[in-house]
Each structure stands twice: as C-alpha cells, then as structure tokens.
Amino acid sequence: MKRPYNFSAGPAALPQPVLEQAAAEMLDWHGSGMSVMEMSHRGREFGEILDQAEADLRELLAVPAHFKVLFMQGGGLGENAIVPLNLSRGGLVDFVVTGSWSGKSYKEAARYCNPALAASSEASGYTSLPPPATWRLRGGASYVHVCTNETIHGVEFQQLPDLRALGCDAPLVIDCSSHIASRPIDWSRVGLAFAGAQKNIGPAGVTLVIVRDDLLGHALPVCPSAFDYRIVADNRSMYNTPPTYGIYLAGLVFQWLKREGGVAEMERRAIERSTLVYDFIDGSGWYVNRVDRSCRSRMNLPFFLPDDRLNEPFLAGARERGLLQLKGHKSVGGMRASLYNAMPLDGARALVDYMREFAASHG
Amino acid sequence: MKRPYNFSAGPAALPQPVLEQAAAEMLDWHGSGMSVMEMSHRGREFGEILDQAEADLRELLAVPAHFKVLFMQGGGLGENAIVPLNLSRGGLVDFVVTGSWSGKSYKEAARYCNPALAASSEASGYTSLPPPATWRLRGGASYVHVCTNETIHGVEFQQLPDLRALGCDAPLVIDCSSHIASRPIDWSRVGLAFAGAQKNIGPAGVTLVIVRDDLLGHALPVCPSAFDYRIVADNRSMYNTPPTYGIYLAGLVFQWLKREGGVAEMERRAIERSTLVYDFIDGSGWYVNRVDRSCRSRMNLPFFLPDDRLNEPFLAGARERGLLQLKGHKSVGGMRASLYNAMPLDGARALVDYMREFAASHG
Predict the structure, then answer these.
(1) Which of residues 194-223 of B touch A (CB under 8 A)?
(2) Which residues carry this modification: N6-(pyridoxal phosphate)lysine (chains A, B) (predicted)?
(3) Which residue of A77, A111, A236, B346 shows the fewest CB atoms closer than 10 Å?
(4) Distance in angstroms (rounded) separating the CA atoms of residues B67 and B81
(5) For A262-362, which CATH superfamily applies?
(6) Predicted ipTM > 0.95
(7) Could you list the active site residues of B?
C-alpha cells in the first residue's frame, strides 16, 4: 500500500512497519489473549514491554547508567512546569530563548523560581542562535534551560553548549522533543533531557525524561507526587498508571530504529533529506527559508512562497499529490515541512519535485 | 475469534468491536491516508474526532451545558493534586475516606490546602460506607471529595450524597474513575467529576474531567498551566498536545456504548453481572466477600478463598480456562474480578462456573 507523505510537525508520521505491527497485535499481543491496552501495568506482559523499551532506548541514545529514564505524561508544556518544580529548588534558573518553545519554558518557570534571560535571539526573529560565549550565565543557577530544536522556528543547535567550558557548573536541561533520536546526545554536557514522544518516537501522551541521578530528590513541596521525578524513578514510571499503549508504540519505534541502523543512520538520513530540501529552496530563487545556515533544523523546515495568496493553492496541490500537513505554524506563517526519522528520502524528493513544479507554473 | 475474558482492574478489557475498528483504521483513518496517531491535533480530522467524542460523552452521561468536558493527562493520581490546585483556593477541603483511592487523595491535598477527614470507614477495613448524615462537614470548605467507587476495596456509593440536604453549600468532587459510564450521574449534586479512562472508557493516558463552569478560573499560582482547568477549557483540551490516540479510542468506546443502549443498559448489565457473581460467592459457603451488601461495587469484586495457599492454583487454573488477571490488589490480597462495561455476561458466567468447579475439587 502506497501511503501519502505526512509532513506534520507533531503528532507526526510513524514508520509504516510500526503501524502494521500495532494493527496486527491489536487484539492479541504475543499470544497473551490481550491487547496491550488491556493489560494491567503491574502484570508480567507489560513489564516486559516497558523493560524492553527502556533497554532499547538506552542502547540507541547511549544513556549512561547514572541517568534514569522516565516515561511520564503531560508533554513538553507539562515539563515546562515539572522541570522547575523538580530542579529549581526555588532559586535561580537561566534560560536561553531561541524560539517559541524555549520562550514558553521561560515564562512558565516564573511560577516556581527566579528565571532570567541569559540570551535571546528574538531580535533576529529567531532565525539565529546566540553564541554560547555571549550567554549571561549567573553563578549559582540551579540549571540552564535550552531548547535544542525549535519546532516552530526551525532552528537547531548543531552541538550542545559546553557549560563547564563557559565557567558554569549548573546542569544543562535540554528540551529535545523535536529532534530526539535523530542525532547522538553528548551526556557529559547534559543534566536532564526531556521530549514529548509525538515527533520522533511515538504517539502523543508519552513524555520521555532522562535525568542524572544526582538531580533527583529536590522537588519543591508543591510538586504533585505524580510528577516528582524521585517518586516516578523509584516506581519505575509506574507510580501512577503509565500511558501503556503509547509506551508500547514508542517501544516498537525503538525496535524499528535499531533495525534501520540506529541513531547514526538516522542522523545520516536527516542530513541527506534536509540538505536536499534546503538546497532546492536556496537555489530556487522563489521559495525562502530565513534561518541562518549555521543553525537550520534538520527536522523542521519552515519556508515561504513569494506571495501569501499562493499558500492555499500550494497546499491544495500538495494534498492532491499525497503530500500532507505542510501548512506552517500560525505564529510564523508560510509552510513547514517536518522531516522526522519516519520520513523516507523519497518523501523529501516528492516534496522538492512538487515545489519545483508549483514554482514553474506559478512563478 | 474467541478471546479470553480479562478481569483486570485497569488498564482493563475493551470491547472487541472497538479493538477491531482501531486495528482496521490503524494505517488510514477514513481515507485520510493517516493513522490517527499521525494527525496534527490542530487539523480538521482530529478536530472531528475530538468533537464527536465530546458530543457522544455529553449525550451518554447527560452532561449539562454549564459543565465543561476536559480531556487531560496524569490519571487519577495526577488529579489528586490537580483538583486542589484548581479548586481549593488554598482553603478548607473535606474528605470522605472510604478506601485506598480516597485515602491517597486526602494525603496529596495537604500540599495545597487544609484538608480534614469528614468521615472514614477505616475501622471497618473499608468494607462499609459512612452514612452522609454522620459526615463532619466544615462550613466554608472549598469542596468535599468522595471516591464513588473504590477500585481496590470494591466499595461503591449506590447514590451520590446530597450535600445541600446536609446543610453544606460546597461543591462535591467525585473520583468516579472505576465506574464512570456504568450508571447515570446526578449532576445537580456534583461540581466536578474526574476519571482515568483506563477502566471503563479507554486506554491509560487519558483523564476525563467534567467541571461546572463556576469552578473554573480559581487555580493557585503554582498550578502548572497545562493543568489549569480554565486554560484547558479555553483551549478545548488542546493547550498542550492532547493524547490524541487515547481520545480516539475513548471515542470509539462512546460510540459502542451508544450502539449497545447507553448508560441505562450498561447499568442493567452491571447489576446482572455482579449479582450473578455475588450471589454465587455468598451461597458458596467457601468464597468470601467482606464488603457490606449495601455498598458492594458492581465493577470491582474482591473475594477470598478459604486458604491463601490455594491462590496460585486458582489463578493457574483460571488462566488455563482463559480467565485472565484475577489476582487481587497486593494491599487487600485474595482475588478480584473487575466486571466493567466491556465484560459480557458470559464472562461472569464462565467465572462462576470455574469458581464452582474449583471449590468442588479443592473444598
């Protein structure tokens, strides 16, 4: 079956073999007589699913033993509160604001701590990244928050900042929701990484938190028990009933990632796909991407047509060709093509072919 | 295909036609070319799914227009914090503790307000319900919290308390996770109802909150934005990315409930199923259920064998006959049969047949 190419920024396309397996196992998982949705989270069967998912994720991302892997609920916006509830100790927190997502994190944190703007790229319309050497980091901050891929603005850190090299001892917190598992993570530079699953690793409703052991156990008294990392970790993500089916799906994605060659191969593909589209845009003289070339996202590619009146015809033609969900975020406008792990190179090629045709007939 | 009968307390059995439809639509929802998991929550397709789910739920439960329906994340344990964060105003809250779940709600609330025990059935081992006329309700409480069906102890309110008749003006909050949609709700007595989906209405990871309009807008400053009922309501459950696939599944369950005859028919079936099993237990002279007959749960039926050494043989024989997940909660011991909406009468019959056989061969 030929499926359309789905460029949604999230919830986003999943690998077809994952969906096929989920459909085949829907009424009976591995001869258990149960759908995964129908299993007690405390039973042997779901225990196996959770253990395997965690083991595969640890292998894929090379997560060191002194980090806990937590499967939580509430998404990235939930974590904007849950991280400061757990890590801020009510003190100073430094934020680097490079787009919509880190901006929301900065704003939400003020409920729980004393946040400050260490750097911002607002003046550039979030089309660049402030160099770490220019960040105004405060001594004694509980942590430094960075969004390493801004889904809406299409800006990505090509390497993680090295806070120690900047003279800062605070742990780095990264919101890597929209590019997790598309490139390796240098854990020596990270204290906590969080990611909503609905872009690169599964369905909406699962939030992944990977946190260094020494950062557990410092939650504020107003932190809900269900969102206290220490409690979640001590109960192996089963203090409250976890989103079992979402974890199962994420686990199927992890297995698919391993079969396809792991994160190194995902990174190679991401570079190939995104380069194809960016090179076409830049060479077209018609479509425009405004992000600085040094920090263009491999995952989320916003672009503009020369005239906004062409947007609807562009989208309608795309749909006809089976190119779905290309509309840009309302705060940015234009188009956005999200090229996550599940997007085959042929999807990027089909997009470029259509863009070329459309420009030729409307240019 | 004959499936086993699954007596899990939650996540729990789902109607087979729902699972079959989900499997059939996994790769392509209604010709969209997308799995529901792959749809942007802001798109037209998911908007239709959400609207239909809410409309069907409102119809099934006869939810009045001055109540909002919210699809949230975090489960019942999450709501134990989220309710007082939203409704307590930091003031007095009265709790009626009738088992494990209301006990946890009472304990968690102390982070946010001044909770007090209005009544407790701990002295009876949570096998009875304290009559509302004996509750010590405080004037000026922000709300009164009751768990209307205790999943672990198998205790159910056969009617909702009428707080006004007790001279109390505070809104009633009900945790109805484990019996929602198995009986009507008298909304004139309720301010807020919440329910984790994973028992009667869908997969784990969706939490339903139905709240009266006048109770919105009073969240404490430390309430995370993603869990502020006012914000969730104003954004039609899409402030953060909702658990889209879980909402879709819940929607399929709602459609199934309507086809089967709605909540009135579910109540009739629940009475029939549970009466069959309770009558057998009481008449057996061998199995024991310790809950007072006036408040036995139609959904969760804990029972004990005369000797705990028979538990493992009982469970092993049950599994052989396709009767799954009958082990009791560790805090209570023994067995527990959960007979939710998706359990056919034949499942209750098969359980009783097996129990009769087992008693005859081990009694």
Answers:
(1) 196, 198, 202-206, 221-222
(2) 199
(3) B346
(4) 21
(5) Aspartate Aminotransferase, domain 1 (3.90.1150.10)
(6) yes
(7) 101, 175, 199
